[in-house]
Design brief:
- This is Diguanylate cyclase (GGDEF)-like protein.
- The chain is of the alpha/beta class and about 250 residues long.
- The chain has a single domain, classed as Alpha-Beta Barrel (TIM Barrel).
- The protein is about 45% helix and about 20% strand.
- It has twelve helices and ten strands.
- The chain has an eight-stranded mixed β-barrel, surrounded by four helices.
- α3 packs parallel to α5 and α5 runs parallel beside α7.
- The radius of gyration is 18 Å and the shape is globular.
- The N and C termini lie far apart (about 45 Å).
- Bound molecules: guanosine-5'-monophosphate (2 copies), manganese (II) ion and sodium ion.
- The site of sodium ion has 4 residues, from β6.
C-alpha cells in the first residue's frame, strides 16, 4: 500500500503523536519551553519519521489538515503546563499560503486557552522564498496577536541575511551543523558568535540546536547564546515524560 493513502487516514485514526524536546535558558539553566515534533505510529511500519512523511504531506496538500492538528494539539497540551513555559511548533511554507492560517491560529489559541505569548512558530527561510504577500501577512498577523516567530535552521539556506530584513523574527535558531562543528573548528565558533551578535543588535534571541555535549553547552554559555536544545539536554519525548521533567525540576 502507498504511504500517502495511509497518511490521509492517520490524523483521523489517531496515529499521530507529538513529542516534545526541552529548550533550556542559558542564564537560569531552567527549561524555558519545548519544541513539538510530530511522530507517526504507523499500524504496520511502526514509527515513521517526520523527515519521511512531512515532505509527502507538503507535496499533496495534506500538510494543511496535518499541520492544523499539530498546532491544536500543541496548544492544548501546553495550556496545562506552568505559565512560564512556551511551546514551539514547526510550520511548512504551504500552511502560510492562502488566507486560512490566521483563523486556524486564532481558533487554536481560543480553544486551548493558551496565551498567545506562550506559542512560538518556527519557520525556515524557505517560507519567505515565495515572496508572497499571503505569507508575510500571516506572519505579521501572528506577531500582532502576540505569538512569537522564530527563524529555524538559520545559516543553511542561500540568503538567510536578506530574510532577516524581510521579517522581524523574535528568535534565530542556529542550525545544528554550525553548533556541532564548534567542537573542532574555530571558524565555526566565529560564525556562531557573529550570529549571536547580529541577533542581539536586531533585538532577537538565539537558540542553539543540536547541542550534544557539555563542552558545546559551556561554549554557548560563554559566548552569550540565549537558549540551547539538543540530545545532551534532552531528546524529544512523549508528553507524559515531558510532564514528568517539568514537575521534577519545578
Ligand atoms: O523530530 P525530527 O528531527 O525527526 O524531525 C525531522 C524534521 O521534521 C525536522 O526538520 C522537523 O522540523 C520536521 N518536523 C517535525 N515535526 C514537524 C511538524 O509538526 N510540522 C512540520 N512542518 N515539520 C515538522
Ligand atoms: O528542522 P528542525 O530544527 O525543526 O529539526 C529538529 C530535528 O533535530 C528533530 O528531528 C530532532 O529530533 C533533531 N534533534 C534535536 N536535537 C538533536 C541533537 O542534539 N542531535 C541531533 N543529531 N539531532 C537532534
Ligand atoms: Mn524546528
Ligand atoms: Na532547526
Amino acid at each position: 500500500r502507498e504511504l500517502i493513502t495511509d497518511l490521509r487516514n492517520a490524523v483521523g485514526n489517531g496515529e499521530l503523536e507529538l513529542y516534545f524536546q526541552p529548550q533550556y535558558c542559558l542564564r537560569s539553566f531552567s527549561i524555558s519551553g519545548f519544541e513539538a515534533l510530530v511522530r507517526w505510529n504507523h499500524p504496520t511500519r511502526g514509527l515513521v519519521s517526520p523527515a519521511d512523511f512531512i515532505p509527502l504531506a507538503e507535496d499533496t496538500g495534506l500538510i494543511n489538515p496535518l499541520g492544523e492538528w499539530v498546532l491544536q494539539e500543541a496548544c492544548r497540551i501546553a495550556a496545562d503546563w506552568p505559565q512560564h513555559l512556551r511551546v514551539a511548533v514547526n510550520l511548512s511554507p504551504r500552511q502560510l499560503r492562502g488566507h486560512a492560517f490566521g483563523p486556524v491560529l486564532i481558533e487554536s489559541l481560543a480553544r486551548s486557552g493558551l496565551r498567545a505569548e506562550r506559542l512560538e512558530l518556527e519557520v525556515t527561510e524557505g517560507v519567505l522564498l515565495t515572496d508572497s504577500d499571503d505569507v508575510l501577512n500571516a506572519l505579521h498577523q501572528a506577531k500582532s496577536l502576540g505569538v512569537k516567530v522564530s527563524m529555524d535552521d538559520f545559516g543553511t539556506g542561500y540568503s538567510s541575511l536578506s530574510y532577516l530584513r524581510r521579517f522581524p523574527f523574535n528568535k534565530i535558531k542556529i542550525d545544528q551543523s554550525f553548533v556541532r562543528s564548534m567542537a573542532y573548528s574555530d571558524d565555526s565558533i566565529s560564525i556562531v558568535k557573529a550570529i549571536i551578535g547580529l541577533a542581539q543588535d536586531l533585538d532577537m534571541s538565539t537558540t542553539a540546536e543540536g547541542v550534544e555535549t557539555k563542552e558545546l553547552l559551556d561554549m554557548l554559555v560563554e559566548i552569550g547564546c540565549t537558549e540551547a536544545q539538543g540530545y545532551y539536554l534532552g531528546r524529544p519525548m512523549p508528553v507524559a515524560e515531558a510532564q514528568e521533567l517539568i514537575f521534577s525540576v519545578d
